[in-house]
Amino acid sequence: MGAFEYVFPAIRGVQAGREYYVTMCPLRLIPRLFMFDEEELPAEMRAQRTLNRSRVPELSRYLLDNPTSYVFSALTASIDADVEFAPFDPSTGAGERVGALTIPMSAKFVINDGQHRRAGIADALRENPELGDESIAIVMFLDLGLKRCQQMFADLNRYAIRPSRSLSVLYDHRDELSAIARLVVHRSPLFSDLTETESNNLAARSRKLFTLSALYGATKALLDGMDKLSFEQKVDVAHNYWAVVAEQFPEWQQVHMGEVSAGEVRRDFIHTHGIVLHAVGRVGNSLLQGKQDPAIWSRKLKKLSGLDWRRANTELWEGRATLGGKVSKTAANLLLTTAAIRTSLGMPLPSDEQHADEAFRRGEK
Question: Does 240 lie in the same domain as 182?
Fold first, then answer.
């Protein structure tokens, strides 16, 4: 080994017949030790995806805003040098796996997984150097060349699946809107019974009518711009609003009481779908922002029950909420669906919905 070396306490393991090492590294060393090749090389000459710089500030801010509760998973890196592992106690089975990993300073550490975390850490350290004394786990493999590194990247990401939006809302205790959405569901016997909290999609035989992700998006639209309200006030507003909305749809009550199946209602009506919930949330935002008395906006919402929400009502919904009979939630469809609901409630249209509605009607003609 050379005269200048890094020495890490490490645990030695074996995967696919090859040794690898797990260690801890202070955050302040991450930007200096672990490199990410950001040169404009063709994809076939790289072992990583290009860095998405728009993600870096988000990761940095997450670290800075949650210094006592953040969680970063391990980085995975390759080392292109000969290393030496010295067990602390080679006389025992467990002892020979724990020791000191010596790596020459001439070695190149290349990140295989975690380049965005590395960039976020580097960015956060510039604002708060005190974070440098904290540590992150590193999984180190011995570099066997570009082909092997590319295969490692493919294997590490082969089965990586992002959690559903509904599950993220269910488990996210930092985001205020996630907490509000959970409480709205929890406080309503109907919504707690009929809301799917893990998946973004409902199976044909599911007895649920809504997804937590759809209610989250609708509640976000409802509370947009109400930043002066306290958390509890926002929960109360959202809970009361959606309770009144639920009263306008007898099919929801029938599913809750077990009189009809959720699958039948989802098949025949559109009012349980995310686009309608989102649109009703936008409408509610206008009603509540207008500071109208609850008795007034409640009377307005009663007109929802007079709309024909059947999917078969193509004269009203085709091209707005549905395309070819299938519910569609593009930005344009959301504007057109909201415009139809506002019109039925006798409400004026904001400019974006007005323009979308006029263009839609010209297209019909």
Answer: yes
